[in-house]
């Protein structure tokens, strides 16, 4: 069983298409999205349409939930408010209906009695943060009664593989915004998109974290043409290395 994992696309169709083109040569049995599909980026509706066309299952991320109930409070940060208003105008009723179908977790068989469980933050909450230094007892609380051989999530925008008991924990990284996250661990000089592949054959398990280069200048130019409001697009463009 060969499964591709993408996530944290954040409305970046250019990065998604770059990753999908690379994955086309991988002979996958399945492709799963780990959430945070459309919000914060220049082409939210187009990304949702592309995932629908693929029939790609998607878990619900915190920013997917944000899309369904964006902030309206005048005290909210100016960039967040501008994004909220713009995204609300970009999405159709069918787009919102699609997001409403996203489950909290997705489970797949890896064969030989093994399972893969996909989520956004953790099986408990899409807000949970799992990093290499998360204490085992904190992880136990997040995982609860969850039992799977491979546990795959996103949310942090930081790629990771770590063991927890007999399980492997994966973070596939971010397709569309690898340059955001906790300041101490954030990726720097970002010119790539991220994803992962899980390959289980017989007793062999292979977990591959991938980075694929992006034509950043072209991508940012297209983003500026999208109509994304000024405070938001200017913030977004600073997250990429255009040197």
Structure, explained:
The protein has 243 residues and is an alpha/beta fold. It has a single domain, classed as 4-Layer Sandwich (Purple Acid Phosphatase, chain A, domain 2), CATH 3.60.21.10. It contains eight helices and nine strands. It has helices at 13-23, 44-54, 62-68, 78-90, 93-100, 136-143, 216-224, 230-237, and strands at 2-6, 30-33, 106-111, 114-118, 150-153, 160-164, 167-171, 192-201, 204-213. The strands form two sheets. It has a five-stranded mixed beta sheet with strand order 3-4-5-7-6, with no helix packed on it. A hairpin with a 2-residue loop joins strand 8 and strand 9 (204-213). Helix 4 (78-90) packs across helix 8 (230-237). The radius of gyration is 17 Å and the shape is globular.
- Quote the distance from N terminus to C terminus: 40 Å
| Helix/strand structural class | alpha/beta
What is the CATH homologous superfamily assignment?
A: Metallo-dependent phosphatases
Indicate the CATH class: Alpha Beta
Overall spatial form:
globular
Order of secondary-structure elements: EHEHHHHEEHEEEEEHH
Quaternary: single chain
């Amino acid at each position: 069983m060969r499964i591709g994992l993408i996530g944290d696309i954040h409305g970046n169709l250019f990065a998604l298409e770059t990753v999908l083109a690379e994955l086309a040569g991988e002979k996958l049995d399945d492709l799963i999205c780990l959430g945070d599909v459309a919000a914060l980026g220049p082409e939210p509706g187009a990304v949702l349409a592309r995932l629908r066309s693929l029939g790609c299952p998607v878990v619900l991320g915190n920013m997917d939930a944000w899309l369904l109930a964006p902030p309206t409070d005048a005290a909210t940060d100016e960039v967040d408010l501008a994004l909220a208003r713009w995204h609300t105008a970009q999405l159709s009723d069918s787009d919102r209906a699609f997001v409403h179908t996203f489950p909290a977790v997705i489970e797949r068989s890896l064969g030989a009695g093994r399972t893969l469980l996909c989520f956004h933050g953790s099986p408990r909450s899409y807000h949970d943060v799992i990093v290499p230094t998360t204490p085992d007892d904190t992880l136990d609380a997040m995982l609860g009664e969850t039992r799977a051989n491979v546990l795959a999530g996103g949310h942090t925008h930081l790629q990771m593989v770590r063991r927890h008991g007999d399980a492997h924990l994966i973070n596939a990284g971010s397709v569309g915004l690898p340059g955001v996250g906790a300041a101490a661990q954030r990726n720097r000089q970002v010119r790539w998109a991220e994803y992962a592949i899980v390959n289980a054959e017989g007793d062999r398990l292979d977990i591959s974290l991938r980075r694929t280069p992006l034509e950043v200048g072209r991508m940012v130019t297209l983003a500026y043409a999208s109509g994304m409001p000024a405070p938001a697009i200017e913030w977004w463009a600073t997250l990429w290395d255009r040197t």
